[in-house]
Design goal:
The protein has 269 residues and is of the alpha+beta class. It has five helices and 14 strands.
Protein backbone atom coordinates (compact mmCIF):
# COMPACT_ATOMS: atom_id res chain seq x y z
CA UNK A 1 0.00 0.00 0.00
CA UNK A 2 1.25 3.49 -0.82
CA UNK A 3 2.03 5.33 2.38
CA UNK A 4 -0.44 8.14 2.97
CA UNK A 5 1.19 11.55 3.43
CA UNK A 6 0.86 13.37 6.71
CA UNK A 7 -1.68 16.16 6.52
CA UNK A 8 -3.66 18.44 8.77
CA UNK A 9 -7.31 17.83 8.08
CA UNK A 10 -9.38 20.94 7.40
CA UNK A 11 -11.95 21.77 10.04
CA UNK A 12 -15.45 20.49 9.33
CA UNK A 13 -18.68 21.02 11.22
CA UNK A 14 -21.07 18.42 12.59
CA UNK A 15 -22.45 16.03 11.50
CA UNK A 16 -19.32 15.73 9.32
CA UNK A 17 -16.29 14.11 10.92
CA UNK A 18 -12.95 12.79 9.68
CA UNK A 19 -12.42 9.07 10.12
CA UNK A 20 -9.42 6.81 9.65
CA UNK A 21 -9.62 3.02 9.60
CA UNK A 22 -6.81 0.74 8.41
CA UNK A 23 -5.09 3.73 6.83
CA UNK A 24 -8.18 4.75 4.83
CA UNK A 25 -9.20 8.33 5.53
CA UNK A 26 -12.72 9.52 4.79
CA UNK A 27 -15.18 12.25 5.61
CA UNK A 28 -18.38 10.86 7.07
CA UNK A 29 -21.75 12.10 8.26
CA UNK A 30 -24.49 10.38 10.18
CA UNK A 31 -27.95 11.25 8.88
CA UNK A 32 -31.28 10.14 10.35
CA UNK A 33 -31.47 6.45 9.49
CA UNK A 34 -28.48 6.50 7.16
CA UNK A 35 -24.75 7.07 6.77
CA UNK A 36 -22.86 9.14 4.21
CA UNK A 37 -19.17 8.70 3.42
CA UNK A 38 -16.90 10.62 1.08
CA UNK A 39 -13.52 9.11 0.34
CA UNK A 40 -10.26 11.02 0.03
CA UNK A 41 -7.21 10.14 -2.06
CA UNK A 42 -5.40 8.79 1.02
CA UNK A 43 -4.69 5.19 1.96
CA UNK A 44 -4.71 3.23 -1.31
CA UNK A 45 -2.26 1.43 -3.56
CA UNK A 46 -2.23 3.54 -6.74
CA UNK A 47 0.79 5.56 -7.81
CA UNK A 48 1.73 8.64 -9.81
CA UNK A 49 -1.11 11.09 -10.54
CA UNK A 50 -3.56 8.50 -9.14
CA UNK A 51 -1.90 8.27 -5.73
CA UNK A 52 -3.25 6.66 -3.80
CA UNK A 53 -6.93 5.76 -3.22
CA UNK A 54 -8.21 6.13 -6.78
CA UNK A 55 -11.56 4.33 -7.10
CA UNK A 56 -12.24 5.28 -10.73
CA UNK A 57 -11.91 2.41 -13.23
CA UNK A 58 -12.29 4.66 -16.29
CA UNK A 59 -8.93 6.34 -15.76
CA UNK A 60 -5.48 5.32 -17.01
CA UNK A 61 -4.66 3.84 -13.63
CA UNK A 62 -3.95 0.12 -13.34
CA UNK A 63 -7.31 -1.68 -13.12
CA UNK A 64 -6.09 -4.13 -10.51
CA UNK A 65 -5.01 -1.31 -8.23
CA UNK A 66 -8.35 0.46 -8.61
CA UNK A 67 -10.23 -2.72 -7.69
CA UNK A 68 -7.97 -3.17 -4.68
CA UNK A 69 -8.63 0.43 -3.65
CA UNK A 70 -12.37 -0.17 -3.79
CA UNK A 71 -12.03 -3.24 -1.60
CA UNK A 72 -9.92 -1.32 0.91
CA UNK A 73 -12.43 1.53 1.04
CA UNK A 74 -15.47 -0.69 1.48
CA UNK A 75 -13.73 -2.80 4.12
CA UNK A 76 -12.82 0.34 6.06
CA UNK A 77 -16.46 1.43 5.96
CA UNK A 78 -17.68 -2.02 6.99
CA UNK A 79 -19.56 -2.56 3.73
CA UNK A 80 -19.62 -5.64 1.51
CA UNK A 81 -18.04 -5.16 -1.94
CA UNK A 82 -20.69 -7.38 -3.53
CA UNK A 83 -23.38 -4.99 -2.32
CA UNK A 84 -22.04 -1.95 -4.15
CA UNK A 85 -24.35 -0.43 -6.78
CA UNK A 86 -23.18 2.17 -9.28
CA UNK A 87 -23.76 3.27 -12.85
CA UNK A 88 -21.86 4.51 -15.85
CA UNK A 89 -21.97 8.23 -15.23
CA UNK A 90 -22.67 10.40 -18.27
CA UNK A 91 -23.53 13.78 -16.66
CA UNK A 92 -27.20 13.13 -17.25
CA UNK A 93 -30.38 12.90 -15.20
CA UNK A 94 -31.07 9.17 -15.22
CA UNK A 95 -31.73 7.59 -11.82
CA UNK A 96 -31.30 3.87 -11.17
CA UNK A 97 -33.46 2.30 -8.44
CA UNK A 98 -31.84 -0.85 -7.09
CA UNK A 99 -33.27 -3.76 -5.11
CA UNK A 100 -30.28 -6.03 -5.71
CA UNK A 101 -26.62 -5.78 -6.64
CA UNK A 102 -25.71 -6.49 -10.26
CA UNK A 103 -24.00 -9.75 -11.16
CA UNK A 104 -20.29 -9.68 -11.98
CA UNK A 105 -20.89 -9.94 -15.74
CA UNK A 106 -23.77 -7.44 -15.86
CA UNK A 107 -22.83 -4.25 -17.75
CA UNK A 108 -23.17 -0.93 -15.97
CA UNK A 109 -26.30 1.01 -16.84
CA UNK A 110 -26.01 4.68 -17.70
CA UNK A 111 -27.12 6.53 -14.57
CA UNK A 112 -25.90 9.44 -12.47
CA UNK A 113 -27.86 8.57 -9.34
CA UNK A 114 -28.34 5.34 -7.42
CA UNK A 115 -31.31 4.73 -5.10
CA UNK A 116 -32.08 1.78 -2.86
CA UNK A 117 -34.35 0.76 0.01
CA UNK A 118 -32.16 -2.25 0.82
CA UNK A 119 -29.87 -1.97 3.87
CA UNK A 120 -27.49 -4.50 2.29
CA UNK A 121 -26.72 -2.27 -0.71
CA UNK A 122 -24.25 0.61 -0.89
CA UNK A 123 -24.90 3.18 -3.63
CA UNK A 124 -21.68 4.72 -4.98
CA UNK A 125 -20.94 7.67 -7.26
CA UNK A 126 -17.50 8.76 -8.50
CA UNK A 127 -16.35 12.38 -8.55
CA UNK A 128 -13.29 14.52 -9.16
CA UNK A 129 -14.76 18.06 -8.85
CA UNK A 130 -18.46 17.30 -9.36
CA UNK A 131 -20.42 17.36 -6.12
CA UNK A 132 -21.39 14.04 -4.49
CA UNK A 133 -24.82 14.25 -2.86
CA UNK A 134 -26.36 11.80 -0.40
CA UNK A 135 -30.12 11.75 0.19
CA UNK A 136 -31.74 9.82 3.01
CA UNK A 137 -35.45 9.32 3.70
CA UNK A 138 -35.96 7.75 7.10
CA UNK A 139 -39.75 7.73 7.19
CA UNK A 140 -42.81 6.54 5.27
CA UNK A 141 -43.56 4.93 2.96
CA UNK A 142 -40.21 3.19 3.39
CA UNK A 143 -36.64 4.19 4.26
CA UNK A 144 -34.43 4.79 1.25
CA UNK A 145 -31.06 6.28 0.44
CA UNK A 146 -29.44 7.71 -2.69
CA UNK A 147 -26.12 8.94 -4.00
CA UNK A 148 -26.18 11.55 -6.77
CA UNK A 149 -23.41 12.69 -9.12
CA UNK A 150 -23.94 16.46 -9.42
CA UNK A 151 -21.97 18.11 -12.20
CA UNK A 152 -23.32 21.23 -13.85
CA UNK A 153 -24.98 19.32 -16.68
CA UNK A 154 -26.74 16.91 -14.33
CA UNK A 155 -27.90 19.71 -12.04
CA UNK A 156 -29.54 21.71 -14.82
CA UNK A 157 -30.94 18.52 -16.40
CA UNK A 158 -32.82 17.65 -13.20
CA UNK A 159 -30.90 14.73 -11.70
CA UNK A 160 -31.48 15.99 -8.15
CA UNK A 161 -35.23 16.35 -8.62
CA UNK A 162 -35.48 12.87 -10.12
CA UNK A 163 -33.44 11.36 -7.30
CA UNK A 164 -35.73 13.01 -4.75
CA UNK A 165 -38.77 11.58 -6.50
CA UNK A 166 -37.24 8.11 -6.43
CA UNK A 167 -36.29 8.35 -2.75
CA UNK A 168 -39.57 9.59 -1.34
CA UNK A 169 -41.93 11.20 -3.83
CA UNK A 170 -43.42 14.68 -3.30
CA UNK A 171 -45.21 13.84 -0.05
CA UNK A 172 -42.18 12.94 2.03
CA UNK A 173 -39.75 15.79 1.35
CA UNK A 174 -39.91 17.17 4.91
CA UNK A 175 -38.43 13.88 6.16
CA UNK A 176 -35.49 13.87 3.72
CA UNK A 177 -31.97 14.66 4.91
CA UNK A 178 -29.11 15.56 2.58
CA UNK A 179 -25.33 15.64 2.82
CA UNK A 180 -23.42 17.62 0.18
CA UNK A 181 -19.86 16.32 -0.07
CA UNK A 182 -16.60 17.92 -1.25
CA UNK A 183 -16.56 19.34 -4.78
CA UNK A 184 -14.94 22.16 -6.66
CA UNK A 185 -15.71 25.48 -4.99
CA UNK A 186 -16.75 28.80 -6.42
CA UNK A 187 -13.17 29.90 -5.76
CA UNK A 188 -11.87 27.59 -8.51
CA UNK A 189 -14.81 27.10 -10.87
CA UNK A 190 -14.76 29.70 -13.62
CA UNK A 191 -17.28 29.00 -16.38
CA UNK A 192 -18.21 30.35 -19.78
CA UNK A 193 -21.44 31.95 -20.95
CA UNK A 194 -22.94 28.61 -22.03
CA UNK A 195 -22.84 27.27 -18.48
CA UNK A 196 -24.12 30.51 -17.01
CA UNK A 197 -27.08 30.56 -19.41
CA UNK A 198 -27.90 26.94 -18.55
CA UNK A 199 -28.03 27.73 -14.82
CA UNK A 200 -30.10 30.86 -15.41
CA UNK A 201 -32.56 28.84 -17.51
CA UNK A 202 -32.83 26.38 -14.61
CA UNK A 203 -33.81 29.20 -12.24
CA UNK A 204 -30.50 29.98 -10.52
CA UNK A 205 -29.51 33.57 -9.76
CA UNK A 206 -26.53 35.59 -8.61
CA UNK A 207 -26.26 33.68 -5.35
CA UNK A 208 -25.07 30.71 -7.45
CA UNK A 209 -23.64 32.72 -10.37
CA UNK A 210 -21.27 35.60 -9.74
CA UNK A 211 -18.08 36.98 -11.32
CA UNK A 212 -18.03 34.29 -14.02
CA UNK A 213 -18.03 31.48 -11.46
CA UNK A 214 -20.51 28.85 -10.28
CA UNK A 215 -21.08 27.62 -6.73
CA UNK A 216 -22.08 24.00 -7.40
CA UNK A 217 -22.74 23.13 -3.75
CA UNK A 218 -25.03 26.15 -3.37
CA UNK A 219 -26.82 25.18 -6.58
CA UNK A 220 -27.44 21.70 -5.15
CA UNK A 221 -28.79 23.19 -1.93
CA UNK A 222 -31.01 25.59 -3.86
CA UNK A 223 -32.60 22.74 -5.84
CA UNK A 224 -33.20 20.72 -2.68
CA UNK A 225 -34.86 23.61 -0.85
CA UNK A 226 -36.91 24.54 -3.90
CA UNK A 227 -38.19 20.96 -4.03
CA UNK A 228 -39.28 20.88 -0.39
CA UNK A 229 -36.28 19.63 1.59
CA UNK A 230 -36.01 21.63 4.79
CA UNK A 231 -32.93 23.88 5.01
CA UNK A 232 -32.10 22.57 8.47
CA UNK A 233 -31.83 19.03 7.14
CA UNK A 234 -29.21 19.88 4.51
CA UNK A 235 -25.54 19.80 5.53
CA UNK A 236 -22.60 20.86 3.37
CA UNK A 237 -18.97 19.78 3.77
CA UNK A 238 -17.72 23.11 2.42
CA UNK A 239 -14.46 21.67 1.05
CA UNK A 240 -13.06 22.51 -2.39
CA UNK A 241 -11.46 19.56 -4.18
CA UNK A 242 -9.25 21.85 -6.26
CA UNK A 243 -7.90 23.74 -3.23
CA UNK A 244 -6.95 20.56 -1.34
CA UNK A 245 -4.52 18.53 -3.52
CA UNK A 246 -3.29 16.51 -0.54
CA UNK A 247 -6.83 15.28 0.10
CA UNK A 248 -8.73 15.14 -3.16
CA UNK A 249 -8.40 14.43 -6.86
CA UNK A 250 -9.47 17.36 -9.06
CA UNK A 251 -10.12 17.04 -12.78
CA UNK A 252 -9.74 20.76 -13.42
CA UNK A 253 -6.67 21.31 -11.24
CA UNK A 254 -4.87 18.23 -12.58
CA UNK A 255 -5.68 18.78 -16.25
CA UNK A 256 -7.83 15.66 -16.50
CA UNK A 257 -5.04 13.25 -15.48
CA UNK A 258 -6.28 12.32 -12.06
CA UNK A 259 -8.21 9.75 -10.02
CA UNK A 260 -11.69 9.70 -8.55
CA UNK A 261 -13.07 9.84 -5.05
CA UNK A 262 -16.29 8.14 -4.04
CA UNK A 263 -19.54 9.28 -2.47
CA UNK A 264 -21.26 6.39 -0.68
CA UNK A 265 -24.38 5.89 1.41
CA UNK A 266 -26.26 3.14 3.17
CA UNK A 267 -29.23 2.66 5.46
CA UNK A 268 -28.07 2.52 9.06
CA UNK A 269 -30.30 -0.14 10.58
Amino acid sequence: MTEAPVFEAPTVTKPFAWQERAGIRSLEARLPGARAAFSTRLGGVSEGPYRSLNVGILTDDDRGRVLQNRKLLLAALGREPDGTVMGRQVHGATVSVRSRAPSADEPLQEADAQVTASPSLTPLVLVADCVPLVLAAAGAPRPAVATVHCGWRGIVAGVIERALDAVCGPAGRDEVSAAIGPGIGRCCYEVGPEVRRAFEAAGHGEDVLADGRVDLALAVRAVLERRGVRAGRIVTAGLCTSCNPELFFSHRRDGGVTGRQGGLAWLDR
